[in-house]
Specification:
The chain is built from three helices and five strands; from the N terminus they run αβββαβαβ. It is of the alpha/beta class and about 140 residues long. It has a five-stranded mixed β-sheet, with helices on one face. The radius of gyration is 27 Å and the shape is elongated. The relative contact order is 0.17.
């Protein structure tokens, strides 16, 4: 059975208006997408390679550049954090390690204050949370 073909190759001029419209809409969506508010606190972890982790069960506390504490995704005051960490220690049957998710701008003094607070409630180990480097900078090699 033969089907009639009436498709012909287009040899006319293309109109630029539809292409310009699609491009314009794409630019608008990209610009509006960058203006969307992302809730939460932005914490930039420092980059490091070859650090050793811990065998103990982790308890994470975030610390931003302004010295505010965040525990279980909630902003928390120092006294309340002490109470909550003490309760976590009492509920745990195994040793705990405090994993401090500190911003790059956090000073050593802020980290020490949090480590001392953890030690007072019974958490003996505090470690920095870091991000691994994606790639070595040109001219450098990564030591395994």
């Amino acid at each position: 059975m033969k089907f009639p073909r009436n498709a012909r190759i287009f040899r006319g001029q293309l109109d630029a208006a539809p292409f310009a419209t699609v491009l314009f809409l794409l630019v608008i969506f990209l610009m509006l997408g960058s203006l969307v508010y992302t809730p939460g606190t932005h914490i930039q972890l420092p980059l490091a390679d070859g650090l050793v982790g811990t065998e103990k069960r982790p308890v994470a506390v975030a610390l931003d550049a302004n010295g505010r504490f965040y525990f279980e995704n909630q902003s928390i005051e120092e006294n309340e954090l002490r109470t909550r960490l003490r309760q976590v220690v009492l509920d745990s049957t195994e040793p705990l390690a405090l994993v401090v998710q500190a911003d790059k701008a956090v000073t050593y003094e802020m980290f020490t204050r949090l480590a001392v607070l953890a030690q007072q409630v019974g958490i003996s180990e505090a470690v920095w949370a870091t991000l691994p480097r994606a790639l070595a900078a040109p001219g450098q090699h990564v030591v395994p």
